[in-house]
Amino acid sequence: MNRVTSGLSILAEAMLIVLLACVVAASPRAESVKPAVAKSPPPAVKGTDTDGSRAYPQSTSGAACREAQFTVSRLQADVARLTEWHDAIDSLFKGTLSSDVSLENLFITDLRGVADPRTNARALGEPDGWPKTVSCDALLAGYQATHDDLIWLRQQIYRQQQRVWTQMPEDFREELRQIWASRQRLVKQFEQVSGQLEKQNDKPSQTVLAALRTIHGRLQRVRLSMLGVVPDLNQGVTVEKSRAFFELWSLAIKAKPAGMLASESELAALPAELQSGIRDYMVLARLDAIELRSVLNLVRAILWKSPDGVFRATAREAAGGRWNLLIIETQAVRHRLDRLLSEVGQDYQQDASAEASYTRIAVTALKTLLGLAAIVLLARIARALATPALRLHAHLSDRVRGNRIATQLSRVGAGLPTLLPWLAGWFGLDLLGWFLYRYEFVFLVPAIPLARLYIVYGVGTLLGEWLVLRIAQQAGSYLNAEQSALLETRAHQAAAVVMLPWLLGDLVNIAIGSSQLLDVCVQARELAAFVAIGILLRTREQDLVKALQSVLPPHIDPWVERVLRGQLFWLTGPLAVLPLLAVFGVAFVNRAMLDVDWYRKLYARGFRLRAQTSKAAESTESEADELRLSDYNRWFEPDSLAEGPLIDTGLGAAIIDSMSPWLADKSEENTLVLTGERGIGKSSMLLQLGKGLEKNYPGIRVLQLEVPAKTTSPEAVRSLIGELLGTDLGEGPAALVKADAERQPSIVILDNAHGFFLRRVGGLDGWQTLLGLTNARLANIFWLIVINNQSLAYLGNVFRRDYQFSRILRARPWTQNEIRSLIMSRHKRSRFRIRYDDVLLASRGPEAGNVRNAEQRYFSLLWDACRGNPLLALRLWISSLRADGGTVVVGLPAQPSTAALESLPDDFHFVYAALVIHENMTAEELVSVTAMGDGVIRAALKTAQDTGFVQRTAGGRYRLEPIWYPSVRSLLGRKNMLHE
């Protein structure tokens, strides 16, 4: 019974194994790589069967071994497929691959379709997903060996995919597809023709067959060499690789399949049908050679542009010199034109029927008409853009009028409407050229350079006319009608000189791209432009001399005239345009950026550096008429800021806006701090503000007080403000609150509020008293506190800013136009005439003696020096004047040097910092604030007075001179002695 049971078990296991084997054999294979190669078995090795699969022990009973046997069978199937794939790639590089294998199957597809579903979507470079071992000792060794074979095959195929396809540029891959298609057609035709010739057992047939094999073999060698050399270049360009590629490229360029064919007499001895097949093969061989040249030339152009220059040097050496290289490249250009023509006739060769030929002729004619229509339409659209562009520019110019920067930008773009049609045509032709080549409008591809040549001619004419007119303007001469007509003729002649080199360069660029021949064409284009400029300027020789002299130092004027005369002009004339173009560019930037504040500062400082030498030379001139100058200076005293005419900087309107909620009884917020640096115009504006408030708000009383110096005790503060309000403030803020209901609405303006404190122990009591009064809840008082910005910064570090006041308005620096208006309005009242010094006036060129430009330069310098401070601007204006009868001569504004100030000890700097924070102080106050000895304070003040940057007023108070204020503040700020 046991024997029967054991026999049945063995029989069941055998049937199960047979069933699994049938399932594996019948399982559908996904459509993966199935190259058609010869099914010859691989060489038998130890441990393998004769069919190439590995031999496994037969005793594999047990469930684990049955499962392992199933895994082994699937693994062997994958190895077999990869082996076919690997053999197909080897056949490709040996030239024996069948003509029915597609390129996608070799290099584009991955391992989709293998038996293991875990590897179904994996690329070749990723893990295969198979288990490393199986749970059957009898199958383990064979499984691991088969798995190692799988890994090795995958790696080999993956490397070839990466080398030949994945890592290559997209343009190369596209060209490779075309080469492959050409190769497939050629191989099929060769197999057909060679088979027929082998059947003809005569001498002419054998001669023609030998010639065809030579042609086929040479094309095959070029193709196989390309697949070996080009991918290697992608890993790095060396001299050896460059030489190998150049030899391959030159071999492809020089190859002539038609020249290797047997004689016509031998060909005529063959049957007519065979002659037709041979001629069809020669057409395909010629097309294949053209395709090979195309892709090799694409790679050559990429290598030529490489920045290291290895290929360029190697190519010249391998060709035997630049001249030989030019000859080879010229042949490459001719072959490229052959390809354009061959693409037209290629379809006819594939289908020689009359009906198909007529259809293709009609399609080609339709393509040509559509392409020509597209070129004409582009020209009309580009030409029609000029009028709308002019209208749009005029509309935008009107819209941005009043905006300085936008106005300048509109001026910069004034020439764009004229150039827009040409620019639109240029970029449109680039797009159209891509479209024509992409969709095989091959007849019209050479038409793109011709159309672009017309644009070059038009733009060249415009640029030539502009150049001559700009040079004439720089020389200070103007053209009459006859000269303008002659200029137009000359401009057309000059543009025509450039056309031929430009056309040749365009054609070479389309044909072979970057090359020695293209470099020669570019050089020829530059030489033609050089000659064209000479032709253009020959009739305006004198204007060119004057224009160049206007931008160069006067002492070389004789040399300029000497080198720009006679026959030398053809060489020196075009070269003289280069410095003039630089000058035109600088002038253009100046006009475009002159309203930008940072550029004004940069321009002013640059001009000051250039003018220092001239200024030093003129400092020894005659002294100014002191009497007349002092009479003139009284119009520019600091007190004159309050007299007018006033310059509206928007500060008064900003204060009214801040007060408006309280004035309209819509807010209980009744305090506002106005701060700014000394001399910014706060006090001058307050007088006009008070008059305006009384006029526009008659029911509101305006009370204005200039705080006496250093009113720092609480009693003094309460007495001062109480007297202003007519209220006894002995009880402090409570007294204000009690009398508020009966008080007329009032605006209290406290100017120079920095007088309420001293930077010492107990010196802040007065300021705290003021805060107590302003923080009281009052409905009929609005406090306007005016204080120096350095004082407010110090108090903000002592108290919290929000604790003191919730609203702070900062007076901004004045603009250059506001500074100019301030000075020129006061100058006009003086009835003096004004003249600008020669250092500010251009002595040569079209701007020679131009007062407007000199004024612009001066006020740029003045605004940069005063940093928008009107008080400092007035002092700098006075410092830059000298009198000449009833005329004031304006020179460069004087700026003090801080070298002497920087060399002083830090104790002195600490004293000057106290003056900046408090604005003005006595010697005794400085002693108490700085906690320094009386001797140190007096020494610091005496040194400052001797240097000239501190002045002593009639009341014995010391303050900084306005002209020194920016320099002292900058120095103390660098030493961290100020709070802002």
Question: Which helices and strands appear, and what pairs or packs with what?
Answer:
Blueprint: H1 2-26, H2 63-94, H3 103-108, H4 137-166, H5 170-199, H6 203-233, H7 239-254, H8 264-268, H9 272-304, H10 310-319, H11 322-350, H12 354-384, H13 386-399, H14 404-412, H15 416-438, H16 447-475, H17 481-511, H18 516-537, H19 541-551, H20 557-563, H21 569-593, H22 597-618, H23 626-633, H24 651-663, E1 671-676, H25 682-696, E2 701-706, H26 714-725, H27 733-739, E3 746-751, H28 765-774, E4 781-788, H29 789-798, H30 801-804, E5 808-810, H31 816-830, E6 833-836, H32 851-866, H33 870-879, E7 881-884, E8 887-890, H34 899-902, H35 906-918, H36 923-930, H37 934-947, E9 950-952, E10 958-960, H38 965-974
Strand percent estimate:
under 5%
The number of E-state strands comes to 10
Low-confidence stretches: 1-52, 111-126, 347-353, 613-622
Largest sheet: 5 strands, parallel
Q: Give the number of helices.
A: 38
Distance between the termini: 111 Å
Structural class: mainly alpha
User: Mean pLDDT, nearest integer?
Assistant: 78
Number of separate structural domains: 6
What topology, given as strand order, has the largest sheet?
Answer: 2-3-4-1-5
Cα radius of gyration in angstroms: 47 Å
Query: What coarse outline follows from CA principal-axis ratios?
Result: elongated
Helix proportion range: 55-70%
